[in-house]
Amino acid sequence: MPLPAEPAAPARVVVLVSGSGTNLQALLDAVAERGPAYGAEVVAVGADRSGIEGLARAERAGLPTFVCRVRDYPTREAWDAALAEAVAEHRPDLVVSAGFMKIVGAAFLARFGGRFVNTHPALLPSFPGAHAVRDALAHGARVTGCTVHFVDAGVDSGPIIAQRAVEIRDTDDEAALHERIKDVERGLLVEVVGRLARDGYSIEGRKVFIP
């Protein structure tokens, strides 16, 4: 009688943060609630600044943390290489930007391109950049949303993994709309990371395929 197959080890995920870490917390909650069935585990959390709640969340969860501040390096390229090295020490299968407010460069993408997941508060390719919510309101859009995508060398231009729509209400200001988008974004990120980890994926041109 054949022995049962060994369950696959959870995918190793390094999360990068710059602020409060609510997306990080959503991932930590999913791992805690679903256990091995989720398919992924957070193995470390990195940041571009110290003293932030995102790092405190990681420390409370017993996770190793690291900080790579741009100002501590002579050039942006040196910072990028150091960040790549710090992430690589934890042998990640996936790297997740959970509100990480720095643009990575060539050294980082050379090591983690096709494995670096980001969220954006709009339905890309509409409204890329740092002011997506404000731009959608100014444009008079009736629907916006959030996108989970792989990071490439452009600004919010990498292959799209998943999207979810959010209606824009007549009473919305930027803060109210952004809060509703963030609520949806957290759920979508948790869903996407779990699916990538459990099912695997391929990238063909600009299309992402998950079995």
Describe the structure.
The active site is at residue 120. Helix 1 (22-34) packs parallel to helix 6 and helix 3 (76-88) runs parallel beside helix 4 (106-112). This protein is an alpha/beta fold. It is built from 6 helices and 9 strands; from the N terminus they run E-H-E-H-E-H-E-H-E-H-E-E-H-E-E. The protein has helices at 22-34, 53-60, 76-88, 106-112, 132-139, 174-199, and strands spanning 11-17, 40-47, 65-67, 94-97, 116-120, 143-150, 160-167, 202-204, 207-209. Strand 4, helix 4 and strand 5 form a beta-alpha-beta unit.
Keywords:
seven-stranded mixed sheet; 9 strands; alpha/beta; 36% helix
- The whole-number mean of residue pLDDT values reads 96
Radius of gyration: 17 Å
Structural class, by secondary structure, is alpha/beta
- Total beta strands: 9
Please provide the ordered H/E string of secondary-structure elements: EHEHEHEHEHEEHEE
End-to-end separation: 30 Å
Large-scale geometry: globular
Approximately how much helix is present in the residues? 25-40%
Percent in strands: 15-25%
Largest sheet: 7 strands, mixed
Supply the number of helical segments. 6
Strands across the major sheet, in which order?
3-2-1-4-5-6-7
Unreliable stretches, pLDDT < 50, 5 or more residues? 1-6
Binding site for (6R)-10-formyltetrahydrofolate: 76, 101-104, 118
Site (Raises pKa of active site His): 156
Function: Catalyzes the transfer of a formyl group from 10-formyltetrahydrofolate to 5-phospho-ribosyl-glycinamide (GAR), producing 5-phospho-ribosyl-N-formylglycinamide (FGAR) and tetrahydrofolate.
Pathway: Purine metabolism; IMP biosynthesis via de novo pathway; N(2)-formyl-N(1)-(5-phospho-D-ribosyl)glycinamide from N(1)-(5-phospho-D-ribosyl)glycinamide (10-formyl THF route): step 1/1
